[in-house]
Structure of TetR/AcrR family transcriptional regulator:
Amino acid sequence: MSQRTREGSTSEARSRLLTTATRIFYAEGIHSVGVDRIVAEARVTRATLYRHFTGKEDLVLAYLDQADRDLRAQAEAAQAGEESAADKVRAICRTITAGIRSPGFRGCAFLNAAAEYPDPDHPVHRAVLAHRQWFLDTVTGLLAQMGNAPAGPSGRHLVMLRDGAMASGCLSDPELVSETFLQGVEGILQARSA
């Protein structure tokens, strides 16, 4: 077998591991899932898992890194073609409600992970905080383009609304939660424009 083929199959095995872990971690929680189950469902050996990840924590960090990259890409794509900062915020928030309305929605992967890893010094908790800081910086930067008042309070308000919508979206009617969230976002945008 050539090196290229070996690398291709290794990459495929890593991808299967990460895809499997992502599905199970998101649906059932991180601590409740052992590596034996992930290995079995990904159809790889334990040795293959440890060839790609130093352990379960490394796999959890890869899961959160992938979720972070996916959400950043969604936010960028949502903003493409939008001219005003307000419309960019609306577009980002519509991607959030699309997630809330999606089948199998179980809340925010990052809030869920933070609940399982409450120690602020743990690498998983730090990954959650880094993602949240990116989101806060993104929306605050857009809100700063509207009005002269400091945008920090409005950005934090929007993040809190998002957190509430993500938590409520899997506990009650996702349509109603999405509608309420977008109304709250409009309130923030109107206050910034006033």
User: Anything to note?
Assistant: The chain has two domains: 1-53, 56-193.
